[in-house]
Design goal:
The complex is a heterodimer of chains A (171) and B (603). Chain A is built from seven helices and four strands. Chain A is α+β, with helices and mostly antiparallel strands. In chain A, α1 packs antiparallel against α2 and α2 packs antiparallel against α3. The two termini of chain A are 22 Å apart. Chain B is α/β, with parallel strands linked by helices and 603 residues long. The chains are: A alpha+beta (171), B alpha/beta (603). The interface between A and B is large, with 41 and 56 residues.
């Protein structure tokens, strides 16, 4: 895997985005969103780059990155699993799902699993309380009324998908 | 050819996540296959409200309501309903009583007890089509007020009695008047769509289901205060709302309803989206302003109020999504009409998000002054699985819990405040007998402690200390003086914290102490959790008379704590048991019992 500095195409894409903004006043958060979308996370190198492009102190960028929970300075798993910790999900057993997941994946906090496939993220209310408890894998794969059993099935489906992809690569 | 059937499919957040897309694509395929595409129109609408029944659709002109759909059901609907004119009974809603109601929207209390003002277009129009919004009186109000003076507009809103729907309930007209009077050539309107309370999805549903009503509301507010520019600050957690807003904005620009010289008047207005980045405190207005400016969202001292010094230090009005969506209707139907709904001090309606232990979880809108009992039992359909109602939580981390003796309280700003909670943005999480109120208080405190921005000491340190005490109580290590310490801390945080987050953070603790003090006491004195929810105080045992020795519990146990041979009575090794409850769920003979751990020792 190339290091972040070698992944030049990402920086080019980010520069293009920044140059395309007409009014740069107050756009720091928007730019960081874009940067995280491109790189997956916001390491110091990326932050310095953003600071330079937007003519703001690096400390300001760092301050914003560390203030908002959406921004991360650590890489995530390929499939970040977002567990909703909203009230409705909590009342309907969200913490049990978290326990199941931690046990199954053997990870602490939001670090990725050894194979880099998954990472666990406790997130704020996803606004789908009527389907509680809810789990979101990646950005779009949404699951409602999740039980520990169902959660393990979801993990398996991703593992199978990965397994198949690797097989295809071999052949 | 004329359209014979219109099919409305709910494309609200809950329905999409339960498979609306695959139902819709099968439906389209089948309709095409049978050559019906010229006579059947499919419309994806915003949230219809009955989120627990999704995916769902209504077929007009009959108004037949189909629910809980799978993609294969779409085929049957096309073949039976559309082709042969025979309704598919199997897909009707069968309520708790088993009674079949084919025309739900006209028959079920869930729908008939509601009064839809803010959610008028939800479930009726296609949110991604501006023409449908216009056809339902959209942008008429804007056209109308541009002929008025801003002062007359402010008077009309003051007369309507509209109060801010974001939580605090400040009169909207008054807020506008202050900002109007601030002298500046540059002013701003901010739409606060940072709906962060856990258990609240009203704003999300309105943004996704009727984005134009929010845009129109912003322009009306802009005209009133003399602003030319608006920001919509929306949570990053709501990607669909962002997508629909972007689409609505580009359509409005295309139609000349946003931009320069709107309706050929001197009024110009531009709107920009600002996406949040996951910080609850940004719902607080001064923090929100900092975040719109791209900075850390930390609150600042008031005054100066945003009406004098807001975004970029210019006068700014911040209105919540629901407040803004009310405006076009108030203008179209008049302040008198609006103020005829609701109670004397709380006019109009309130959109509520029902969730938790309730049968009809979903989105509803009721007149202010509706009782909690009507909301939870008539509209919400009561508590599932024959359990007993214990409390309803309103106002999220800033609110409190209301016990059953106050179920006849009306929902309006003042009565809820009297009970020690707040209306908040409108999330209602229902709790049953299995919910431990100390644990609920701990949950909310944990939320507030984590979301505290750290700027002021009472909130940063105080919430942490309270949380430590609550953890102790829940873990069975509480001391008698803990209750007093909690109260003392709560009151001093309320009095001294800088912003609304800190000042209201102790509310969940204070309100549970007020109504459920016995639960705190039994945790501390007897080491019993009445709801049998706190792990430290429960144990699982097997009833030797009921156990048939099937072994289901032993297989379910992840730590081999269940001992016993097949066809013999099983036992739980308490030392190995981690109290996960798997055996309790697995047993089909009701033999696994949840008991208070203290009783076990005595045995």
């Amino acid at each position: 895997m190339p290091t972040i500095l070698e992944a030049d195409s990402g920086f080019k894409e980010l520069d293009k985005y920044i140059d395309g903004i007409k009014e740069k006043k107050g756009m720091l958060i928007g730019v960081l969103h874009k940067a995280q979308e491109i790189f997956g996370y916001l390491p110091v190198e990326v932050q310095s780059h953003v600071a330079e492009k937007l003519h703001v102190p690096e400390s300001t960028v760092y301050g914003v990155v560390t203030f908002y929970s959406f921004f991360t300075m650590k890489p995530r798993g390929k499939y970040p699993i977002k567990l909703c910790m909203g009230t409705a999900c909590y009342v309907k057993g969200g913490s049990k799902l978290l326990e199941t997941l931690r046990e199954e994946l053997e990870v602490k906090g939001d670090e990725p699993t050894k194979n880099g496939l998954f990472s666990i993220h406790e997130v704020r209310c996803l606004g789908a309380c009527s389907m509680a408890p809810v789990v979101l894998v990646g950005d779009n794969d949404f699951h409602g009324h999740v039980t520990p059993h169902k959660l393990l099935q979801i993990l398996d489906s991703y593992r199978q998908k990965e397994g198949k992809r690797n097989e295809n690569k071999k052949s | 050819m004329t359209v014979e059937n219109t099919i409305l499919i709910c494309a609200g957040g809950a329905c999409i996540s339960s498979g609306e897309q695959s139902v819709k694509s099968t439906l389209e395929e089948e309709i095409k296959k049978h050559g019906l595409d010229s006579v059947v129109k499919i419309v994806e609408t915003g949230c219809m409200g009955s989120c627990n029944l999704g995916p769902l659709m209504v077929i007009y002109p009959e108004g037949v309501f189909y629910q809980n759909l799978k993609s294969q059901d779409a085929k049957e609907i096309v073949e039976e309903h559309l082709l042969k004119g025979r309704v598919v009974q199997r897909l009707f809603y069968k309520g708790p009583t088993g009674e079949i109601k084919p025309r739900m929207k006209e028959e079920l209390p869930f729908f008939t007890k509601q009064v839809k003002v803010v959610t008028r277009n939800l479930g009726i129009i296609d949110p991604s089509n501006i023409d449908e919004y216009i056809a339902n009186d959209g942008y008429f109000a804007l056209n109308k007020i541009l002929e008025w003076s801003p002062e007359r507009l402010i008077e009309e809103i003051k007369k309507s009695g509209l109060r801010g729907r974001g939580g605090a309930g400040f009169p909207t007209g008054l807020k506008w008047e202050f900002t109007r009077k601030s002298k500046s050539s540059e002013k701003y309107v901010i739409c606060n769509a940072d709906e962060g309370d856990p258990g609240a999805f009203m704003d999300r549903s309105v943004l996704e289901g009727d984005p134009h009503s929010v845009l129109e509301g912003m322009m009306i507010a802009g005209y009133a205060i003399g602003a030319q520019y608006g920001y919509i600050y929306v949570r990053a957690e709501y990607p669909l709302a962002i997508e629909r807003l972007k689409k609505a904005m580009s359509q409005a620009y295309e139609y000349g309803l946003l931009g320069k010289r709107i309706f050929n008047t001197n009024f110009s207005f531009d709107v920009e989206l600002r996406i949040g980045a996951g910080a609850f405190v940004c719902g607080e207005e001064t923090a929100l302003i900092r975040s719109v400016e791209g900075m850390r969202g930390q609150p600042v001292q008031k005054p100066p109020y945003p009406a004098q010094k807001g975004v970029w230090d210019k006068p700014t009005v911040i209105n919540n999504v629901e407040t803004l969506a009310n405006l076009p209707v108030i203008i179209n139907k008049g302040a008198d009409w609006f103020s005829s709904i609701g109670t004397e001090k709380s006019r109009g309606t309130k959109v509520l998000a029902l969730s938790g232990k309730i049968n009809n979880a979903g989105l509803i809108e009721v007149p202010m002054g509706t009782t909690l009992r009507e909301i939870i039992f008539d509209i919400g359909g009561g508590i599932p699985n024959g359990k007993k109602f214990k409390a309803v939580q309103t106002g999220g981390p800033s609110g409190g819990c209301i016990p059953d003796e106050y179920l006849d309280t009306t929902v309006d700003y003042d009565s809820l405040t009297k009970l020690g909670t707040i209306m908040g943005s409108g999330g209602m999480v229902v709790m049953d007998e299995d919910t431990c109120m100390v644990d609920v208080a701990r949950y909310f405190l944990e939320f507030s402690a984590e979301e505290s921005c750290g700027k002021c000491t009472p909130c940063r340190e105080g919430t942490k200390r309270m949380l430590e005490i609550l953890h102790r109580i829940v873990d069975g290590e509480g001391k008698l003086e803990d209750i007093d310490s909690l109260e003392e801390l709560a009151i001093s945080i309320k009095d001294t914290a800088l912003c609304g987050l800190g000042q209201t953070a102790p509310n969940p603790v204070l309100s549970t102490l007020r109504y459920f003090r016995d639960e705190y006491e039994s945790h501390i004195k007897e080491k019993r959790c009445i709801a049998r929810s706190c792990k430290a105080m429960i144990a699982y045992t097997i009833d030797s008379e009921k156990c048939v020795g099937c072994g289901a519990c032993a297989r379910a146990c992840g730590v081999n704590a269940v001992i016993g041979k097949i066809k013999e009575v099983h036992k739980i090794n308490q030392e190995a048991c981690i109290k996960c409850g798997s055996c309790y769920v697995a047993c089909n003979f009701d033999a696994v019992k949840k008991v208070d751990a203290v009783d076990l020792v005595e045995d």
